[in-house]
Amino acid sequence: MSAPRGQWNSKIGFIMAAAGSAIGLGNIWRFPYVTGENGGGAFVLFYVIFVVLIGLPYMYAELALGRATQQNPVGAIEKIRPKSFWRMAGFLGVITGVGILSFYAVIAGWTVAYIYKMFVGQVGGFGAFVADPWSEISLFALFVALTSLIVQKGVSEGIERWSKILMPLFFILLLALVIYAMTLDGAGKGLEFYLKPDFSKITGRTLLAALGQAFFSLSLGMGTMITYGSYLSKNDNLVTSGVSVALFDTLIALFAGLIIFPALFTMGKDPSAGPTLVFVVLPELFAQMPGGLVVGALFFVLLTVAALTSTISLLEVPVSYLIDDHKMDRKTIVWIVAGITFLLGLPSALSQGASEFFSNFGLIPASFTSADFLSQMSFIFGDIALAVGAISLSIFVGWVWGIDKAADEVEKGAPLFAKTRGLWKFIIRFVIPLVILLVLLNTVHIF
Fold first, then answer.
1. The domain 11-350 belongs to what CATH superfamily?
2. Looking at the predicted structure, is the pLDDT value of residue 9 above 70?
């Protein structure tokens, strides 16, 4: 007999944990600079549309597969199609979780350092900071350890309990920073750029960027929602739970823009500053504002909490697989996976100037991504592996498991789903695989 699987103690616990998984650096670090690079308001509009039309229906597919099988991504597929090549889609999700965690925790470590840097007024020198091997490795190790300590406690005592603490803290900090940003002199111009759509700026590239951001910001494509769905009871309403997660995730991304764009326009900075926006441009902005260092420190506390709620879910996917398949002790598994992740992430930690070899790794051509090891890992796992995983899982649910069985599972505890059942089946079988394929082709510059 295997040990009983973990379960959420409450629906709000699941929503907080799943929303925490989705809400991360993608919302607060990536979303604003991608918005800035793609013309502001029009990008935001299409991002929201794609969350509703593509992201949410796909989330139901992952949650349904997890709850129906009560398994991790590999076990879920194995239960439906034993010994088939489809289980590789599940393995890809597990490997992707480890791959993303290995570089994500490096960036998460930067957020911890910047809390201190803002408090003491050392806002500059990002390049020198990330090039220091000892600070990079120490902060990376700290974040992996912190994540592991929470995940080793299990589903209800670890992930759910901490999500219930971290997510309300996150919302309080976020609202405080939004209110502060609204009082800045440039708030009006910033809000106009951010919220007033200029459809002349819409191109195919803008649409694909919005589509990619909407899909991947929801933590989809690597089996996280299969794993979290497997801890749900049959009585839970997957539809309202999924809507809550998507709503929280989208609001957080939108709120992040309400903080960042008023600040940028107040200080006359370029909104399309790219990935350096949060770690280079914003600290300088905060330093120039009255009381800005305290505000900046709170902003990086916010980022740290967002990163931690995501690293928890990234670690839980491989841990859940190993517990289900190998019946090993959770604590042992957590620290084994954490150790592997740490070793895999060391090149990323050293790739921002600390090591010439890893800083100019360049295995993937420069036309796709930067030469440093961290950017290369982000491209492989954060762009390619997620897209391939999402296509594979949507085809598996729509065509292999059987779309009617999937729809039946979504409908349990959600009787109103029957009214949109036909539309959902069409979206899962035809629209989502095609849409993600377009994003993937755009990522590899086919367009």
1. Hydantoin permease (1.10.4160.10)
2. yes
